[in-house]
Amino acid sequence: MVCQECNERPAALHFTKVINGEKTEVHLCEKCAQDKGGLFLSNDASAFSFNNLLAGLLNISPMVQQANQPQQKEHETVQCQHCHMTFHQFLKLGKFGCPNCYVTFGAQIPPILKRLHSGNALHQGKLPARIGGTIHVKRQLDELRLQLKGLIEQEEFEQAAKIRDEIRSLEKGVSDQGGENV
């Protein structure tokens, strides 16, 4: 494939951009890519590192945009006592400076994880096939019990009764299959 700029040299860089479902492809040789201001090529291999990708994702979020506003200085003042990294530096780099940073910035981490992982901040992992069904039912029962507790506190007794019946049905199914008490 030939460079789309000079139409002379072979294209070494193939860049695809998709915006609102519209796909645009750019094919450039190394010289034309460098002439474009280095937008496409970088001599630094770390330019495309996972940390830079994560930092880019973090910087896009509205929460980070709010943190960068002048009135939001608490992230700037909180600093790891061990490595002296600020939360703003973490957002820029995409990685912590030391293990103590996880403790120092612990309160700010869950909202970022939720945003990055489509609302999930808890890793549940894969389950073994032979016992996965039982564990799945136990997790479902735990969720239903939490819902039941919330509904009772809100005095939504009719909905709570439906959830209670669903819990009993699941518990009966587990005990019928020879599972332990849940």
From TrEMBL:
Keyword S-adenosyl-L-methionine applies: no
Entry GO MF terms: cadmium ion binding; cobalt ion binding; copper ion binding; zinc ion binding
Annotated keywords: Stress response
Claim: Lyase is one of the keywords in the record: no
Alphabetized InterPro entries for the sequence: UVR_dom, UVR_dom_sf, YacH
Name of the protein described by the UniProt record: Modulator of heat shock repressor CtsR, McsA
PANTHER family: PROTEIN-ARGININE KINASE ACTIVATOR PROTEIN (PTHR38430:SF1)
UniProt domain UVR: residue ranges: 138-173
Pfam families for this protein: UVR (PF02151)
SUPFAM superfamilies the UniProt entry points to: C-terminal UvrC-binding domain of UvrB (SSF46600)
GO BP of this protein: stress response to cadmium ion; stress response to copper ion
Organism name: Jeotgalibacillus soli
Ranges in coiled-coil conformation: none
PROSITE patterns named among the record's database cross-references: UVR
